Amino acid sequence: MFTMYTRILFALALGTFATGRSANLPSASGRACNNSPLLCSKPYDTVTYLGAHDSPYLRDESTTFSSFGNQFFSTTVQLDAGVRMLQGQIHASSNKDTGQRELHLCHTSCDLFDAGSLKDWLLEVRKWMDSNPNEVITILLVNNGIKAKELEDVYSQADVARYGYVPPKIDTPPPPSNETETTWPTLDEMINRNERLVSFISPLVPDAQNAPYLLDQWTFMWENPYLVTNPSNFTCLPDRPEDLPLQEAKESGRLFMMNHFLYWQQAFGIQVPDIRFVNVTNAWEGPGSLGEHLMTCSGMVQRQPTFVLVDFFNVGPAIKAVDIFNKVDVPVGRKNVTSNVVPGGAGMFWGAARRSAEVSIWGVGFAVLAAVVLSMVL
């Protein structure tokens, strides 16, 4: 008897699963879109995009292999290797030279992990897009009280706003594309119009006049739980927006972002990316693997996830599972990167550096505790 997974794989092979559309067709333009000519004719909402969770927060020599880092390689390397969704967090900070207000990419707090200014990071993305004109990119920014106009100013300063995609309605998601109706443009169409950057902000009050290309995440997207510490606890049920039933999520037109990464619980309630299981977490098969999670969720939702968010994207490699779901056998123009845990990248909790790691975590823990106590006193 066929298992559910076998039936899903058969459906994928036939090209009829999840979208109701026929198998991928080669691009009439002759180009490769997002590393494959077979994806050019597909509507944006019927492709699965590999996402780098906390893209700018690195675990490399520049951060002394910080255990808070989520990726081994820079955003540019991520894009070169096939990542097509970049996620980060934005906070109001200040320029270290002028003291003026400046938006930064900070991990939880700018005092704990500051990856630099949003402008500089968007410049990096824009330069990559300039050099890769056949690629459609998605950005997801977790917002901490920043208004659309201020964000638009930074997008414009980085000269990336010109790539922004504006949907017909910015306050309502379109219904899902199907075999009879295409509700999102195809990758080919987005590339031809040079509207190749889709930006979701979580949350955001839309500003149709000043920044119509900056979209509220929860209007257009839903996600499964993200605070997972055990590989057996990955699920497919909606977590945000809150109180959203699965059936309503499926019918709403919102795009499904499948979180697939693990946290490792430390002292004082601190959580760091879990490097211990990443070889299986990002693999095609195995307990708690990316491939297993993709197949389970696709069966429940009856569509393949639009976005798959992972830590340490190169390990697994995670792109393999995404390629299988997109039916991409031979990617075009993608650069190779090691699929191993980077030497030193196992973090400060391993080997000879374990003691310094414990000191570091305890130090951060005491700093957090002191901040809480101080806030209570004040």
Query: How many discrete domains?
Result: 2
CATH superfamily of the largest domain: Phosphatidylinositol (PI) phosphodiesterase
Helix amount, in percent?
25-40%
Number of DSSP helical runs: 11
Query: Which H/E pattern describes the elements?
Result: HEHEEEHEHHEEHEHEEEHHEHH
Low-confidence region ranges: 10-22, 348-378
- Average pLDDT, to the nearest integer? 87
Oligomer class: single chain
Overall form: globular
CATH level-3 fold name of the largest domain: TIM Barrel
CATH architecture of the largest domain: Alpha-Beta Barrel
| Structural class designation | alpha/beta
Q: Terminal Cα separation, in Å?
A: 66 Å
How many strands?
12
Give the DSSP E fraction (strand runs of 2 or more residues).
15-25%
Q: Which CATH first-tier class of the largest domain would you pick?
A: Alpha Beta
Largest sheet: 10 strands, mixed
Computed Rg: 20 Å
Give your account of this protein's structure.
The structure is a single chain. The protein starts with a helix and ends with a helix. The protein has 2 domains: 4-344, Phosphatidylinositol (PI) phosphodiesterase (TIM Barrel), CATH 3.20.20; 348-378. Strands 1, 2, 3, 4, 5, 6, 7, 8, 9 and 12 form a 10-stranded mixed β-sheet that branches. The chain has helices spanning 4-14, 75-80, 118-131, 148-157, 187-193, 217-220, 246-251, 278-281, 290-301, 318-326, 354-377; strands spanning 49-52, 85-94, 101-106, 114-117, 137-143, 197-202, 214-216, 221-223, 255-259, 263-265, 271-273, 307-310. The protein is 28% helix and 15% strand. Helix 1 crosses helix 9. The chain is of the alpha/beta class. It is built from 11 helices and 12 strands. The protein is globular, with a radius of gyration of 20 Å. InterPro entries: PI-PLC_domain, PLC-like_Pdiesterase_TIM-brl. Residues 1-23 form the signal peptide. It comes from Amniculicola lignicola CBS 123094. It holds the Pfam family PI-PLC_X. One of its GO terms (biological process) is lipid metabolic process.
